[in-house]
Specification:
It contains five helices and no strands. By secondary structure, it is mainly alpha-helical.
């Protein structure tokens, strides 16, 4: 669909599978990191301020906005069959 990425589809699927005790993906899901704080899209305002003057700040903020649109309630509820 327009405006959706395969990453969003995969994220939706894995969120669903995380709670399925019989999922064939359990081993993979269990080895995923508990957080992704080291990823620039999760930087705090203070951390972003350290990058002031860099082209990276705009790219990070733009990507954050794209992701917010992608994972909106509409995206999750209406594009993943089992979430309807």
């Amino acid at each position: 669909g327009e405006g959706r990425s395969t990453q969003a589809d995969l994220a939706c699927y894995l969120c669903q599978e995380k709670y399925n005790p019989n999922s064939k993906w359990n081993t993979y899901i269990r080895i995923l990191p508990p957080h992704y704080r080291n990823m620039p899209i999760f930087f705090t305002e203070e951390e972003l301020s350290l990058l002031r003057g860099s082209f990276s700040v705009k790219k990070i903020l733009d990507r954050q906005e794209e992701l917010k649109e992608e994972v909106s309630l509409f995206s999750f509820c209406f594009h993943v069959e089992s979430f309807k």
